[in-house]
Structures are given as structure tokens and as C-alpha cells.
Amino acid sequence: MMDAAARRRVRSLVRKEMRQILRDPRTKRIVFGSPILQLLLFSYAVTTDVHNVPLFVVDHDRTAESRALTDALTAGDWFHIAGSSDDPSDLERALDRGTAAVGIQIPPGFARDLAARRGAAVQVLVDGTSSNTATVAQGYATRIIQEFGLDRAGITDRGVDLRTRAWFNPELSSRTYNVPAIIGVLLMLMSLVLTALAVVRERELGTLDQLLVSPITAGELMLGKTIPVAIIALIDLVIICVLAILWFDIPIRGSVLALLVSSIVYILASLGAGLFISTISRTQQEAFMSMFLLFLPAIVLSGFMYPVHTMPAFFQALTVLNPVRHFLEIVRGIFLKGWGFADIWLQLGAITAMAALVLWGSTARFRKGIY
Amino acid sequence: MLSARRLAAVARKEWIQLRRDVRSMVLAFVLPPFMLLFFGSAINWDIRELPIAVVDRDVTAHSRRLVESFEASGYFTVTERPATMTEVDALLLDGSVIGALIIPPGFARDLSGNRNAPVQLLLDGGDANTATIALNYADAIASRYSQLVLLRGQRVVLPVEPESRVWYNPTLESSNMIVPGLIAVIMSIIAAMLTALTIAREWERGTMEQLAATPVHRLEVVFGKLLPYLLIGLFDVTVTVTAGVIVFGVPLRGSLILLGAMTLLFLLGALGIGMFISAVLKSQVLATQVAMVATYLPTLLLSGFLFDIASMPAVLRAITYIVPAKYYIAVTRGVFLKDIGLDALWVQGVSMVLFAMVGITAATAAFRKRIAQ
Questions:
Q1: What is the ipTM of this complex?
Q2: Which residues lie below 8 Å from residue B299, measured CB to CB, with a gap of 6+?
């Protein structure tokens, strides 16, 4: 292993790096402030829940029954009235302009048909341009209207009575699913950016040459550059987990140790990728662009914003090579399903293999690139 | 006086510089079609053939037919038939099924006796969106089945029958939603990543003094520098629109002229903001990062591109009003899918004009200050 002198050299380099990061208030903000900000932004903005859909009502019937139907639709927080009119062309205009996403049209004679059990018709128009919202909103509207009809007709006998329970996330809130995943995204981002920029900055400023004439070896230099980043990433991990638990009320149901171990392996994989980028970039600008080109597909193919199981087969196959995908499965499993080591060995194994590969490859390139 | 010749000279210089930067060229010409293919085919919210487990404790013709109607819908596939509830738990836990349908004994008896026949559906709620959609489908399947059974051939008369129609995108295809929105995302990347460099590069390479000493008006510099990016942006939009129509079959129903005019305004605004950031920060790395945070992230997250604005908390909803991409995406979706004109899009039109003016003014103002120093 390392002798005492080497350990001392690495330690002093780590100290120098830490000081460099912590001294600059701007870097400090990026390192500790931006994860919090991004956690909040992503948690609140990346939502596939459908609430509060603007609804336009054209009520030709104007009876107590038709008003009761409108009330039934707006009773939950699924719909709110964005407008109402007697004129169907107003509804059309509202959908065109996007001021309403769903419109209902209650025909004249609605109450009469309902009372006579003739099958009162209600027209539901859905703006399909946002396909996800439209699918969900259409389902809500159909269900509420049918329920309303059955209630009014006094039919309690529903035939097949489907009783649904959602496990792991009974309220079906997408935030519960997304917040743990943000950990994966932010850890990758932090480790990647800090490692790649730390090395390239020295090269740009010309201080890399100074380091090379010092007795430090390439391996020690690499350790000295990556250890501080790993420490910072772990601190970020703790900050995000604490926020997830205290602010977003998302408990860790599984093994904290498993979370820690897989995070460390995952951070190593991200550091490796960052080192690799630093070996192919001469300037910080180049490094930044390479990072962007690497990071974007990694996120799209991770299952973070869009589920993996609905992707075409080719893209699904690609996700197997993506450490982010495996890590997201691990964090989501640990947070929501109470997973432990026994459940994650496959994903953890995959990330470990990738981390080993990328670290080996970038170390080799790093050594060569330095001299 | 402004001179077209001087402006063209600045534009040519900028273009030569750009051409030599491989990464910028990749961003400008390779990334947009790549992103379109990538996002367009990888992002898919169309839920089909979700794996479910079935525990049939009734084992009658009725229970079998209910399971069949789940499969026949195309939304669910029965992949597992566990014998015990512990097995169901394990399957849901390791994620090999998304749900489990449990039919209790006596199901057929209850159904024939015109009583409520309870059936349990357990869903993996982790992925809330998939679960919500699966829940809606399952509900629809169950109630259709009940109607068939209860009425045994009689004409089905529900007390209230919702007649649901989806406009603009009747098959609810995700790509019809994503491709028009993607144009805005791609352009905000070009603006953020490319123009953020343009003035900062002059500072970093020390060529700013040369530029200041050259007899060009600052408007000529600003517009001259904008021109190559504007052309790249228009080229990218053309490629994206064409590919969207040909590869993804997205209908283009509205006026191309309207789309073109709005695109030009949006590009001017976005490029202007990028240049402003570049001129103020004078550092390429810093400018790119700020531009990413200021333009790219809001476009991705707060524009309604993928995530529904109405479902966001009030604070974020308020912020979306100052995200230009929100208005621009309303234009692209409106022109592509809705075939609407300026009468429906005048708010967006005014926003685009304002945005373009703000962008150009900011870029010009920031640029002058620096030269004067």
C-alpha cells in the first residue's frame, strides 16, 4: 500500500482542495446550496400528478341536477372551474387557447333523462395536447360522472366492485417517487462537475505543472483530487436525505447502511466519469460541454422523469448500461419498499462493475495524460 | 450609421470562430436531431401491457372471463399466478409485477345473485403516475364487465353516460405532445450553450480590445454576432419540424408562417438573453452555467413541456408566467396540433415580441457598458 510519505502528500493535497472549495463563497454555494435548491425545484416541478385541471362547463340544462354534476366534478381537487357559458363555441375557444384542458357539455333535458332513466348523456371534451394529463383527467371525469349517475339513480349494486389499494405510496403522490430519485441525479451531477472541473482548472491555470514537479505521483494526485469530492458528495447525500425526511415527509423504510454503501459505490462511478472527462478536455468549457453531452442521456434513460418500462425495447436495453438507472432502483426501493442488501445485490453489482471499469479506464488515461 | 457590410463581416468572423470549435458544432448540429430522436422515442407515457399477477380463488367461468377482459384490454398482461398472498407480496416488492388482482371465493355467486362482488386490486403505488393510469383502466374494465354481466344482453343504459372525446390528439400519443415542445427546449439549449460563449470568449482571449478598436457600431456587433446563431437556430427548427412530421408522424395542422414568425421572435429573445449573460459575466464557464440555470432548466421544468403546470404549487405556478418558453410551447402546440391562429394566440404573440425586445435591448445595453470602460 502507501507509505507514510505518500499518505502525507495525499492528505495535504486533500486539505488544499478542501480549502480551495470552501474558501470561495461562490463554489461553496454551488456545492451546498444548489443541491437544496435543485431538490426543491425538482420535487415541486417534476410532478406527474394531475390536480387542479381547468374545466370549462357548458350547461344547457340549468337544473339542480346539472349543477349537482358540476359540483361533483369540482368536489375533489381534481378540477376547478375555469369558465362557463351557454355557448358551445366558447368551450371550443377555451380549449383552443388552452385556458381549459377539459370541457363538459350538459345537454338540455339532462335532468329529465336522468329521472326517466333514459341514459342522460354528458359530453366530455379533452385537450389531448398534453397526453399524460389528458389520459388521467379523462379517467377522473369519466369515473366521477358515472358515479354521479349511479348515485342519483340509487343503484348500489355495482356488479364487480373493484377495491384498489396502492402499496408503498397510498396517496399515489409522484413526489414520494421522485424525491428519492433526485438523490441519484444530484449525486451524479455534483461528483461529475467537481471532479472534471477540479483537474481541468489546474490545467487551465497552469498549476498542474507545479503539482507535477512536486514529488507527488499521478495516482496520489488522483486520490487527492477525488477524495474531497467524495466527502462533499456524501455531505450532500446527508443534506438531501434529511430534507426528504423532514421537509417532504418521505421516510426511509429500508436499510440505511445499504443506502450508504450503494451511494459510495455510485459516487465512485460518477467520480470516474468525471476523471475521464478531465482527461479528454483541455479547458473548463470543453469539460462542461462533454459533461452535458454525457449527463443528458444518462438522465433521460434512467427512469427519473419517464418510466423505463414504457420505452421502446432498444432504449430499455441501453438503460442496463446506465448506472443512474440502477441507482434509482436502489434508492426508490430502499425509501419506498423497505429494501435491504438482499434486494439490491443485482443493481449494486452492476454499479460496482461499472465503477471499477470506469475508474480503471480513467486512471490509465489520467496517468498517461498527465505526463 | 449601421452598415450591412460591417455587420456581415462580424457575422462571418463569428461563424469562422464557431466552425473551428468542434464541441460547439456538435451542440449546434448533432445535438438537436439527436435529442429529437432520443426524447421523441424514449419518452413514452403510453401505458400498455402492464405486468400483473392474478390470484383466482373463485375459479369459475365468471372469474376467468373477468381476467380475460383485463388481458383483452391490452393494458394488462398476466405474467404471474401466485398461489399465496406471501408470493403476491414478494412479487410486488421486487417490482416484477405492477399490480395484483385478487378474486375471492364466491365471486361468481355474488355476481349472479346481483350482489356486490368485491374484487381486490393491489397496485405498486411507487410510480404514482403509472399506478393512477392503471387504476383508471382497471376501473373502466371492471365496470364494463359488470354491465355486460348484470344486464345479460339487455341494452346497456347507464344512468349518466359520459361521451368522452379527445381533441387535437385523439390517440393520446406522447410524441404529439413532446415533439412540438422539444423545439423550444432545443432552442433554449442553443441559446444557453452557444451564445453564452460569444462575448465571454472575446474577453477571455483578449480580443475585446481589438473589437472595441474596430470601427463597428455596437448594434452591428450585437446583430452580427446574433446572425450565425439565428441561422443555426432556424436551421435546427426546420430539421426538427421536418423530422417530427416525417419520423414521428406528428400532424402539422396550422400555419407555417405563424410558426416561423413566432420562432424568429423567440430565438431573438433567447439569443439576446444568452449574449447578455455572456457580456455581463465575461467568463465562458460561468456564463454557460448561469445560462443553463436561467434558460434551459426553466424551459425543461416550468414550461409545461413535460410536467403539468396546473398541478404545481402556487409559487412555481406564479414563476411560470415569466418563463418565455411557456408561451412559445403554447404556440408550437397550437400550430402543430390545434390549427389555431393569432386570434387565439395573441397573448403569446405579444409575449414573443416583448421577449425579443427585452433580449436585444439587454444584449445591446450590456455590451455598450463594457466597451465604454
A1: 0.80
A2: B184, B185, B188, B305, B323, B325
